[in-house]
TrEMBL record:
<dbReference type="Pfam" id="PF14691">
    <property type="entry name" value="Fer4_20"/>
</dbReference>
<dbReference type="InterPro" id="IPR023753">
    <property type="entry name" value="FAD/NAD-binding_dom"/>
</dbReference>
<dbReference type="InterPro" id="IPR009051">
    <property type="entry name" value="Helical_ferredxn"/>
</dbReference>
<feature type="domain" description="4Fe-4S ferredoxin-type">
    <location>
        <begin position="38"/>
        <end position="69"/>
    </location>
</feature>
<feature type="region of interest" description="Disordered">
    <location>
        <begin position="1"/>
        <end position="20"/>
    </location>
</feature>
<keyword id="KW-0314">Glutamate biosynthesis</keyword>
<protein>
    <submittedName>
        <fullName>Glutamate synthase subunit beta</fullName>
    </submittedName>
</protein>
<keyword id="KW-0560">Oxidoreductase</keyword>
<keyword id="KW-0028">Amino-acid biosynthesis</keyword>
<dbReference type="InterPro" id="IPR028261">
    <property type="entry name" value="DPD_II"/>
</dbReference>
<comment type="pathway">
    <text>Amino-acid biosynthesis.</text>
</comment>
<dbReference type="InterPro" id="IPR006005">
    <property type="entry name" value="Glut_synth_ssu1"/>
</dbReference>
<dbReference type="InterPro" id="IPR051394">
    <property type="entry name" value="Glutamate_Synthase"/>
</dbReference>
<dbReference type="Pfam" id="PF07992">
    <property type="entry name" value="Pyr_redox_2"/>
</dbReference>
<dbReference type="InterPro" id="IPR036188">
    <property type="entry name" value="FAD/NAD-bd_sf"/>
</dbReference>
<dbReference type="InterPro" id="IPR017896">
    <property type="entry name" value="4Fe4S_Fe-S-bd"/>
</dbReference>
<feature type="compositionally biased region" description="Basic and acidic residues">
    <location>
        <begin position="11"/>
        <end position="20"/>
    </location>
</feature>
Length: 496
């Protein structure tokens, strides 16, 4: 503990965002460049170095948070980077994208604002790259065993890096034309600029990992032949089967899934397109779904110049304080949070029909109606109670030229032929079945990340990638491994 009184004398201070009117004119990250380092040392001083640090338990990676907080407070960035990378392959991803369950588990959060763990993590990662503290780590010798990793999202990349460093020859197969999976085409650049992804992929190439793009296993690459070619296969394709909204008018033109919309906007940022075919420019947009994907659609539509953007959340507006009975510390509470996208919509008044930050809470979609050409023109909704029952007299309509469905994902997409080509067993909820060692019913085939866990957080995906790598290494070496396994396939976040 660098400052024994830091948690008493120093208030919480977060990485400041650029003014909303400025940042919506570009696709750069929303934060003020260079404004994190001046505050992060003081924030690290707030860490109490608890005897039993619950932030460890709240983080599936088991990040050594008090240790690197202390090192940051002493400006020992090299040692802080070593402690951070000991448990997390990609801290610049989690430092930007993770909702920080570690902060919900911070002991200080019992009665004060938590330590800004996520900001400290991001500062360590960025400083490590700037100072050259994260060189490639190729293996000293090769094992002679080969592994195919299917999917290049955070789970697949983490598994591939761990297995490459263990000495196995690893090839990553990605169905898109660039590596990154959801990190590449699902996450908007204003949340994480793609240079961070490119930097890690470059590191992995230098370590020996091989990448195969535009290679959809099951469609472009025969799944059974791939299995026969490699000593082991890791399936980390993510949960790409989106949930549908079966209401009248769903067939109208202009009603799209969020993951049809977001990748096109990302391709504009990549320079592949001059303009998205689904651009929100000049259109009245309604986003159905109150989660992070819906917020990503909101921020993207605002940047594209939508006439208005409204987001529907079927849940009631949560409170500003933790409900100690329903969600006691150290569980992750459902609170009213203002993301960067919601802040932008509020400040720019992008949703005149909604509440202050563009969201309509406790709202359920009834139907869509369109014009004579079959294009959506309105969304009809109704207010609901806590049991999602319609409230009499609460029906209303919103103008809608573009409707985006952000209702979550159930598991891997069965249409690409991977699951059936390998003959994988599936769980009733649509995910790939696996045992306690991450192994599927097909010998030598393992599954990790959202494809087997179901839709989850980036930090869980990385944790699963690290854990499945340990399972595969054990399988290839005949029963032993030195790779860490931070989570098991049946582990879940802390709940009351």
């Amino acid at each position: 503990m660098a400052d024994p009184k830091g948690f008493l004398t120093t208030p919480r201070e977060e990485w400041p965002r650029r003014p909303a009117g400025e940042r919506v004119r570009d696709w750069d990250e929303v934060y003020v460049p260079g404004a994190l380092l001046p505050i992060v040392g003081r924030q690290a001083d707030r860490c109490m170095d608890c005897g039993v640090p619950f932030c460890h338990e709240a983080c599936p990676l088991g990040n050594l948070i008090p240790e690197w907080n202390d090192l940051v407070s002493r400006s020992d960035w090299r040692a802080a980077s070593e402690r951070l990378h000991a448990t997390n392959n990609f801290p610049e991803f989690t430092g930007r994208l993770c909702p920080a369950p570690c902060e919900a588990g911070c002991v200080l959060a019992i009665n004060q604002p938590a330590v800004t763990i996520k900001n400290v993590e991001c500062a360590i990662a960025d400083t490590a790259w700037e100072e050259g503290f994260v060189p490639p780590l190729p293996p000293e010798r090769l094992s002679g065993r080969t592994v195919a990793v299917i999917g290049s999202g955070p789970a697949g990349l983490a598994a591939a890096q761990q297995l490459t460093r263990a000495g196995h020859t690893v090839a990553v197969y990605e169905r898109d034309d660039r590596i990154g999976g959801l990190l590449r085409y699902g996450i908007p650049a204003f949340k994480m600029e793609k240079r961070h992804l490119e930097r890690r992929v470059g590191q992995m190439r230098a370590e020996g990992t091989r990448f195969r793009t535009s290679a959809a296993v099951g469609r472009d690459v025969d799944a059974a032949a791939l299995r026969a070619r490699y000593d082991a296969v890791v399936i980390a394709t993510g949960a790409t089967a989106w949930r549908e909204l079966t209401v009248p008018g769903r067939e109208l033109a202009g009603v799209h899934q969020a993951m049809e919309y977001l990748p096109l906007a990302n391709r504009v940022c990549e320079g592949d397109l001059e303009r998205s075919p689904l651009s929100a420019a000049g259109r009245h947009v309604v986003v159905v779904g109150g989660g992070d994907t819906g917020a990503d659609c909101l921020g993207t539509a605002v940047r594209e110049g939508a006439a208005s953007v409204t987001q529907l959340d079927i849940y009631a507006r949560p409170g500003a304080e933790r409900d100690e009975r329903a969600e006691p510390w150290p569980t992750y509470p459902r609170l009213y949070r203002l993301s960067a996208a919601h802040e932008e919509a509020r400040d720019l008044r992008s949703a005149p029909a909604a509440d202050a930050d563009a969201r309509l809470f406790a709202a359920s979609t009834l139907r869509f109606t369109g014009d004579e050409r079959g294009h959506v023109r309105a969304l009809h909704l109704v207010g609901v109670d806590a049991g999602r029952r319609p409230l009499p007299g609460s029906e209303r309509s919103l103008p809608a030229d573009l409707v985006l469905l952000a209702l979550g994902f159930s598991g891997p997409d069965r249409h690409d032929g991977l699951v059936d080509g390998l003959g994988l067993d599936m769980e009733p909820r649509g995910t790939i079945a696996r045992d306690r060692g991450f192994a599927t019913n097909v010998p030598g085939v393992f599954a990790a990340g959202d494809a087997a866990r179901g839709q989850s957080l980036v930090v869980w995906a990385i944790a699963e990638g690290r854990a499945v790598a340990a399972a595969v290494d054990r399988h290839l070496s005949g029963g032993s491994t030195r790779l860490p396994a931070p989570v098991g396939p049946y582990d879940r976040p802390m709940t009351a």
